[in-house]
């Protein structure tokens, strides 16, 4: 069987389908000896994908091998888990893999970390409770385990860099030891110490040091050392240098490092090696926004790269030009991009560049004619592969208009004239999307052109309808245009002819359009009311509930039609009828009994049966299987011109690059701008003169004194097209400081050990959650409005960093390497105490509330906070104390707009006067709009007395601050359970203090503010709600020391958040 499996693997590698052998691969992994088991696991990893149904048969085998005393079996099980293990099966093996982090063998620990990294990528909420163990892996004595943990940290820091600032010193020390060659020689690659480890650490440091002077200061020395030690002439060293340059330009800048990085970029760009030149262009594209003068120093090289034979070099050069585009050079740069598009055959390159050209044309267009002609070229060259947003945005821009109404009409008129001229060309083939744009513009604005008879336009559109290459969708656009034009003409022979032709069409849609046009033409008054001129941006009232169909629905139900069922309910019934597999472990399966409900799928845990445990919001997708030979990714060796690699080698020998040492990259000087004296210019060849002239037009506006308008930066010049507010759109661009970076992106990794400073906390921004009814899952789901986070800008406050340093003990098994331990969380620095002690009023003292905590203070003011948990909101009580001997007037308290939170009243409050040595208070009710585990609400206090005083502070808010018990009966619980579609399941180990269900339920009830609905044997049901009225139901069951949790809610993010809180509470207790 082993030999047969090897041959099956070979067949799959050749592209032939061999699914008949998949089951035998699983049997071989289950029953064979070590060698056969290894081949079986290998075959399974190559044959199956993560959602394959046969993987269920492998779960017990993996669990058994993880518990084996044979190291080889454990390694094979960990390898298969880190490759194709599906997320539904993670709870079955997660406790076993956690235990392997303490294994005595480093290879087991390393593979366990890799498996957890896989789990974090596919189900981050299921491994949030073991983040402390990730830190232990970072401190492991084996360098391989430490290196494996960096993958997890890189991913977590990308999502939440502010939560791991305390580890900056640890990462810096690791990089110093790696660069210093203190790792075992096994980690070296071409005499370069652990290059991939260096690259990972540099990326992590770049994320941690961005816009943070204090954190960046810790990195300067090790970055300088990394640049200095890169002296080996090898590609991997160039990769390290490139990563160093990116990190230096990402973190808070230091002039000395920037100069060295610029020299590196210069040597890369000037190198004859294609790989190094590409790296130089890539780095130059990355840093051009911070240092636009760097492009001036290499402008002639960039010009030469535009004509480089390598398309990758040419494409990267165009990307660089896109970054330096402004109003003065946009015409030349866009023309270069269009020239490349006409030659390119790659779909990806076309889609990418077409989007950039459209963006530049809209932002920097010098006049209407150029804008329309450029967009016509975009639609012609891009074809039907252009992104749908490009034509939509173009039509929206034409419809909404600009600041000047006269210029608005001129643009629309020129668009009509250009499209009429294009349609004059016979036998011209235009892409379908371009024809749709033409049809819409002609239908809306053809009446602006008074010198063209509408009958002529209708004739051209009619001729388009007869073209065979025009699709049904495009014909619908053309018919809509004909209808609009017909509404503005008294009578038309072309319209009558069109109606007669298509009334008998075999195309049902065209026949319907023809009948609609016929009836509208019979009533011109109705036609004009339905199709007013230039009304595309007018607001429309839409009956979203389709109430006009109520009579039709009632009539159908009266005749015995089946009532409507939501999508998730139909899916559950389908899964139940197909006898879907139960993914719940046998020991934790729920009790089945006869159901009294008509729903046959997922049902209430209160004594009702369970047809399927598959989540309602998850879908499995299988691979397409085909009998043809799969040749994707196979290199083409033969073509019409013969053996292709031989011809490439000939070209390579003609352009043989010279070797370049990395030491010279740092030692060389970057040349100044290649502007030449007039006598030297006269001696230049014609080709050089053309390049000089092209450079002068491409790089105009990039001088140090010029008003540069780079992509991604604020444009100092006036933008050509500014949209008028014809539609009711509200856009806000509030400034949010760096310390408001979200502590969790929806549900990012949160560490209890992260130091939190009450003065300089990292924050969250939150959106609006509207009121909804308790039992309507559809309304609750629809009312969750998620908005785009506001742009983050630099704050004047410096984040406080913990003094994380490494100990002097040994890190790895090698005696010459130091061990490090991250320091414990830094405590908040104590500010000076004020004698003014605020207290809650009597009406709030009886409510559940927190202690009065100090937020921040200055010489004049002191701020304190107390949280009060009312039944319908979180009440924040802010106390403002006047420490001076004179009264303070007009003291303003302003809460900044947040993404995840909503202040119910006005976010501002003014104290008219605060007497000397007295305390005033302000109360604000807060709701959570978008679900997050923990976030921060930022605010500031400002007053103007003898001298201006401004204090900024942040308030840490948790999901539990907005959770309230939800009282209901067992019957109501069962009905509501059936109506909810989003669920999450997890098994949690119970501690010795929680050996009974009642103890576990009591812990959850007290710590999470849940209402205990009922206890049935070894099962319990609880309910809560997220303010104002988003329900969440919990079903618990104990078995063999495990607590099985099952959450359900109309909001998909709420069960994940409460599951994380449950894991945290159960571990703490």
TrEMBL record:
Q: Which SUPFAM superfamilies match?
A: ARM repeat
Q: How does it sit in the membrane?
A: Peripheral membrane protein
Q: Where is this region: Disordered?
A: 601-624, 668-687
Q: What is its main location?
A: membrane
Identify the GO cellular component terms for this protein: AP-4 adaptor complex; endomembrane system
Q: Which GO terms describe its biological process?
A: intracellular protein transport; vesicle-mediated transport
The biased composition feature labelled Polar residues covers: 601-620
Q: Does the keyword Repeat apply?
A: no
Report the subcellular localization. Answer: Endomembrane system
Q: Identify the Pfam families for this entry.
A: Adaptin_N, AP4E_app_platf
Q: Which UniProt keywords apply?
A: Golgi apparatus, Membrane, Protein transport, Transport
Q: Where is the AP-4 complex subunit epsilon-1 C-terminal domain?
A: 964-1067
How does this protein assemble? Adaptor protein complex 4 (AP-4) is a heterotetramer composed of two large adaptins, a medium adaptin and a small adaptin.
Q: Its family?
A: Belongs to the adaptor complexes large subunit family.
Q: What does this protein do?
A: Subunit of novel type of clathrin- or non-clathrin-associated protein coat involved in targeting proteins from the trans-Golgi network (TGN) to the endosomal-lysosomal system.
The protein depicted here goes by the name AP-4 complex subunit epsilon
């Amino acid at each position: 069987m082993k030999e047969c499996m090897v041959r099956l693997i070979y067949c799959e590698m050749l592209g032939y389908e061999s699914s008949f052998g998949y089951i035998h691969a699983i049997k071989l992994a289950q029953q064979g000896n070590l060698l056969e088991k290894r081949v079986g696991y290998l075959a399974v990893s190559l044959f199956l994908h993560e959602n394959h149904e046969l993987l269920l048969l492998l779960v017990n085998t993996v669990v058994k091998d993880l518990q084996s005393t044979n190291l080889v079996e454990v390694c094979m099980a960990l390898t298969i888990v880190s490759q194709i293990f599906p997320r539904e099966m993670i709870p079955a093996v997660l406790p076993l893999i956690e235990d392997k982090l303490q294994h005595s063998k480093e290879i087991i620990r390393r593979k366990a970390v890799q498996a957890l990294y896989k789990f974090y990528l596919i189900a981050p909420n299921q491994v949030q409770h073991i983040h402390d163990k990730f830190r232990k892996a970072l401190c492991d004595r084996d360098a391989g385990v430490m290196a494996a943990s960096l993958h997890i940290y890189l991913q977590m820091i990308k999502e939440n860099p502010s939560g791991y600032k305390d580890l900056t010193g640890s990462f810096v020390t690791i990089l110093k030891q790696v660069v210093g060659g203190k790792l075992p020689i096994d980690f070296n690659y071409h005499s370069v110490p652990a290059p991939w480890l260096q690259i990972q650490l540099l990326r992590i440091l770049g994320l941690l040091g961005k816009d943070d002077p204090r954190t960046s200061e810790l990195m300067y020395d090790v970055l300088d050392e990394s640049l200095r030690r890169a002296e080996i002439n090898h590609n991997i060293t160039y990769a390290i240098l490139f990563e160093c340059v990116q990190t230096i330009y990402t973190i808070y800048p230091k002039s000395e490092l920037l100069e060295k990085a610029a020299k590196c970029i210069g040597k890369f760009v000037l190198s004859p090696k294609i790989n190094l030149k590409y790296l130089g262009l890539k780095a130059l594209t990355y840093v051009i926004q911070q240092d636009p003068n760097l492009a001036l120093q290499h402008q002639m090289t960039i010009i030469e790269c535009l004509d480089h034979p390598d398309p990758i070099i040419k494409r990267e050069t165009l990307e660089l030009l896109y970054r330096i585009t402004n109003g003065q050079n946009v015409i030349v740069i866009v023309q270069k991009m269009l020239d490349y598009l006409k030659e390119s055959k790659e779909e990806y390159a076309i889609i990418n560049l077409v989007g950039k050209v459209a963006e530049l044309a809209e932002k920097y267009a010098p006049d209407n004619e150029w804008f329309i002609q450029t967009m016509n070229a975009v639609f012609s060259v891009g074809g039907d592969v252009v992104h749908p947003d490009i034509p939509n945005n173009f039509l929206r821009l034409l419809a909404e208009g600009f600041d000047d109404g006269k210029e608005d009409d001129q643009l629309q008129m020129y668009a009509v004239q250009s499209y009429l001229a294009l349609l004059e060309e016979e036998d011209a083939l235009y892409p379908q999307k371009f024809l749709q744009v033409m049809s819409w513009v002609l239908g809306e604005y053809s009446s602006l052109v008074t010198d063209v008879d509408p009958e002529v336009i209708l004739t051209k559109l009619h001729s388009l309808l007869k073209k065979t290459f025009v699709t049904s969708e495009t014909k619908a656009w053309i018919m809509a245009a004909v209808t609009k034009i017909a509404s503005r003409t008294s009578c038309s022979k072309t319209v009558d002819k069109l109606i007669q032709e298509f009334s008998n069409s075999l195309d049902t849609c065209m026949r319907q359009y023809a009948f609609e046009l016929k009836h509208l033409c019979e009533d011109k008054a109705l036609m004009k009311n339905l199709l007013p001129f230039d009304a595309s941006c007018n607001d429309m009232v839409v009956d979203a509930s389709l109430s006009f169909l109520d009579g039709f629905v009632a009539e159908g139900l009266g005749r015995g039609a089946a009532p409507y069922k939501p999508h998730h309910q139909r899916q559950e019934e389908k899964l139940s009828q197909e006898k879907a597999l139960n993914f719940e472990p046998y020991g934790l399966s729920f009790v089945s009994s006869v159901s009294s409900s008509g729903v046959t799928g997922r049902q209430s845990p209160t004594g009702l049966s369970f047809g399927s445990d598959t989540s309602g919001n998850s879908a499995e997708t299988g691979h397409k299987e085909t009998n043809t030979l799969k040749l994707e990714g196979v290199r083409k060796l033969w073509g019409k011109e013969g053996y292709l690699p031989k011809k490439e080698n000939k070209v390579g020998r003609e352009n043989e690059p010279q070797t370049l040492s990395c030491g010279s990259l740092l030692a060389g000087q970057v040349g100044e701008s290649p502007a030449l004296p007039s006598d030297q210019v006269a001696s230049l060849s014609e080709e050089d003169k053309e390049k000089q002239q092209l450079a002068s037009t491409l790089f105009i506006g990039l001088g140090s004194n010029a008003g540069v308008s780079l992509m991604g930066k604020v444009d100092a010049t006036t933008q050509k097209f500014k949209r008028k507010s014809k539609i009711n759109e509200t856009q806000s661009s509030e400034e949010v400081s760096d310390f408001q970076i979200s502590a969790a992106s929806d549900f990012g990794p949160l560490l209890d050990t992260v130091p939190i400073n009450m003065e300089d906390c990292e924050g969250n921004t939150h959106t609006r959650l509207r009121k909804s009814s308790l039992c309507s899952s559809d309304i609750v789901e629809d009312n969750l409005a998620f908005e785009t986070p506001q742009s983050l800008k630099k704050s004047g406050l410096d984040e406080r960093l913990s003094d994380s340093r490494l100990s002097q003990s040994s890190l790895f098994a090698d005696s010459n390497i130091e061990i490090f331990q991250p320091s414990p969380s830094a405590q908040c620095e104590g500010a000076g105490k004020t004698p003014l002690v605020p207290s809650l009023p009597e009406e709030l003292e009886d409510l559940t509330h927190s202690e009065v905590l100090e937020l921040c203070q200055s010489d004049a003011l002191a701020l304190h906070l107390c949280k009060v948990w009312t039944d319908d909101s979180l009440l924040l009580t802010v106390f403002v104390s006047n420490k001076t001997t004179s009264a303070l007037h007009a003291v303003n308290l302003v809460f900044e707009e947040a993404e995840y939170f909503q202040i119910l009243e006005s976010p501002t409050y003014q104290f008219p006067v605060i007497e000397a040595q007295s305390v005033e208070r302000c109360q604000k009710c807060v709701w959570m709009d978008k679900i997050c585990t923990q976030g921060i609400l930022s605010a500031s206090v400002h007053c103007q007395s003898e001298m201006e005083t401004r204090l900024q502070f942040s308030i840490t808010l948790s999901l539990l601050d907005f959770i309230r018990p939800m009282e209901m009966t067992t019957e109501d619980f069962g009905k509501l359970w059936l109506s909810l579609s989003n669920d999450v399941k997890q098994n949690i180990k119970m501690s010795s203090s929680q050996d009974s269900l009642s103890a576990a339920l009591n812990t959850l009830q007290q710590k999470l503010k849940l209402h205990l609905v009922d206890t049935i044997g070894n099962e319990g049901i609880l309910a809560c709600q997220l303010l104002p009225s988003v329900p969440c139901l919990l079903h618990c069951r104990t078995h063999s020391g495990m607590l099985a949790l099952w959450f359900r809610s109309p909001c998909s993010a709420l069960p994940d958040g409460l599951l994380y809180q449950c894991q945290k509470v159960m571990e703490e207790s």
